[in-house]
Amino acid sequence: MQSDKIKKIMRKYKKEFKILENYDKTRELPFQRKRIDITLSVATINKLKQLKAKTGKPISHLIEEKF
Questions:
Q1: What separation in angstroms does the CA of 51 have from each of 40, 41, 43, 54, 61?
Q2: Is-above-0.70 flag for pTM?
Q3: CA-CA-CA-CA torsion for 20, 25, 31, 35, nearest 10 degrees?
Q4: H helix intervals, the chain
Q5: Consecutive 10-residue runs of the chain (67 residues): their mean pLDDT?
């Protein structure tokens, strides 16, 4: 009886259990954010600033959406 409840929970929350299993291995969650340094041309930075002004989104979100 209890085994069936456990199986039901495991099926229902399969994605969450995989995330936690991966966290145990890597200490990283898929929705965590990390800071990195990148080098961009002035023209690219200016285009990103224009997009930021149009959309109101931060530049980091614009870059992240492209991937």
A1: 15, 16, 12, 5, 11
A2: no
A3: 160
A4: 2-12, 14-26, 42-55, 59-66
A5: 86 93 90 87 96 95 90
